[in-house]
Amino acid sequence: MNTESVARPSSAKVVPMTTSAANVSNLLQHYGCGSIPFIGMENAFYERHLVFDRAIDPKVAGARERFEAFARSVRDVLARRWVLTKKTYEGENAKRIYYLSMEFLLGRSLANNVTNLLLDPLLRDAAQENGIDWLELVEQEPDAGLGNGGLGRLAACFLDSMATMQLPATGYGLRYEYGMFKQSIVDGWQQENPDNWLRDSDPWEIARPHENVEVKLNVSFQLREGNFHVIPDRPSSLIGIPFDRPVVGYGGRTINTLRLWAAAAPEYFDFQEFGTGDFVGALGQTLEAESLTRVLYPDDSTTKGQGLRFLQEYFLVACSMADLVRRFQRHNADWGKLSEKAAIQLNDTHPSMSVAELMRILLDDVRLGWDQAWELTKKTLAYTNHTLLPEALEKWPVAWFEILLPRHLEIIYEINRRLLDEVRHRFPGDEGRVEHVSLVEEGSQRKIRMANLAIVGTHSTNGVAAVHSKLLRTTTVKDLAEMFPERFNNKTNGVTPRRWLLEANPALARAITQVIGERWTTELSQLNKLKPFAGDPSFREVFLKSKREAKAQFANWLKSTSGHIVDPDTIFDCQIKRIHEYKRQLLNALRIIVVYNRLRANPGMKMVPRTFFFAGKAAPAYKLAKLIIKFINNLAGTIDGDPAVRGRLKIVFLPEYNVSLAERLIPASDASNQISTAGYEASGTSNMKFMMNGALTVGTRDGATIEMAEEAGEDNFFLFGLTVEQVESSRAWYNPHWHYENEPETRAALDLIFSDYFSRNEPGVFAPLRDVLLTQGDHYMHLADLTAYCQAHERLGALYADPGRWAHKAILNVASSGKFSSDRTIAEYAAEIWEVEPCPVL
Asked: Is residue 564 flagged as an active site residue?
């Protein structure tokens, strides 16, 4: 397969972007539409949907109603291409990609779909002509509550790239009614509130109840005294109802599908119970079923929460496998060709039950022999690993399989028996290796190792950055990698430049297009042509102007939405990601205290003023992560209240971090903090988005940051801290007390925390931080890296004071970000794992 040809779909024609009648006509032909009811007709571009969908006079329509009408009108435009895409795939009987993921962090769809359809200038003008505020319209759409962090956002970028590159693909996920949670900050603490993103109808989704799937379980559930109780050995079923969302490729030629499953009960209403007055009991089965897809991540600190997560994962797998098998059977009678027609990618361990489920289908439903079923399963499935953290490599109790999925457990046991026989044959006497590779973890509670199952039952296991893939092979699953070395490979992550540069940062996108043309939107490697312009004073000026514009826009938005006032002429210094100890938001806070102490001791000290932005959610049961959020907010309050540093230091914790917030903040950012303990971050994708938008990285040699620095040159990065090898080699003897005793600034920062300086009204609230950093040994080595981290930021501050030199390095970063397009990543998956070719929709 020619990767270069995949990276730029030849049929994704770029249509001229003017509002002339001729070009409007061209667009109509491009999308196969005879007319667009909302262009060229005064006050009527959304009128049809307002009148016929809402039965409302357009003159009195509210903002939300206008948004829905506008979005449905855009869906009208893409609908024919969507139908034609499906028809093309069916007619060609093309090999298809099925991407299974528990998360798809889509963000908002209106602006993205309009951008990818090449309708942006047309619709903005149409909105203006009809008195519609485009920005107000966009703001009416909530971020889809279908993901939380990098895993889900990567999946969304991949869907965008597959559609843009005209690869026949379907995404499979769950239709979470409430997402994860909506985050607010009260007295510095994170508060979790329901994220009812589907409260209003979603104009993008289409329910397909006639394509539902029955999911069989070996148990039933009964509602008693307000709680659900499991009744073993009484089989029951759930119904998976698909909801389809369009995935618009750039240029609008290909419209792929994201299919999300909602759970329902086979019988919605027990009339007998209702008739006797048990109103809640009458709806018990429905409540139990619908609860399955209620939230993204149940509270996994409880057994019930873990059990719900287990069921969610199986529900996703069972629905998706049934659906894709049904699609395969429509055009293929020979089951031996399954792997020639389907490539199933498991996004992390969550869908790894696909191994057992596909085996069950092939053995029990299709009646194939074990050997043929096993070969087909391995050839069809592939697995992406996203973490090295042991707690994230899922292990489910054997007892749950025994109760809920006994047939799957039988299959897993047989896979394991054959695997261990092979291990003992190849490595006689090595029982330690047998224990490590086994799918069953022995102990007081026997568990199934889902990562091991995914590796053994697929033909490909990939990491998501070079260093991550190396550590996966040499450390995390070393014995399995030695058993199956040919299965392991690397696919460094990427992000879509359409959303994260073209749409999110229009000023910079225009500046780039003016000097190198527009091909970069689908061939990000074209950004390399910017390198000569890093030395061009006029382009530097344009670049700095675009950054200042993004910062001013963000400052204005922040003031209008939260009341926070920030100065766009300060360094915007950002760390935005899930709150976790290994991501080391605490290290960032310690660095700020060091700078704060310096200013208190020396008020005349020269430094460029900084605004520090933090954003991210902590898992509800992760107490220390929630305490770190509290600490950052208390630190912000203390600094805000100190006149000695006012105007020089400011901290803002931005609640409810999501795609829409990132789209505003990343283009405005000057400094990107990527400071995970080396060896813990699989890849990262925010690092790529910051680089693409001209922020300079202060980071450890971890994840994809290593490859980013290689592309741009380490002299254009601010790298610091221990390497992966140094972290591992010092683990046995590392003592954080040495840094406390021998580094005065480290000691002063910690003493200030422990003196309750930042918690005067809540003495002792931050005592657990002492335990983490000193008493318990500072597992993530904050203190080991603190001094070097501070020094890296000193160098960054000195550079910022020289705008010309700063712009030079920032432009080189943008110019070197071409490798980190999700198009490049998907081209590698398509050529090296899936063996799938583009299927152009004519």
From this structure: no
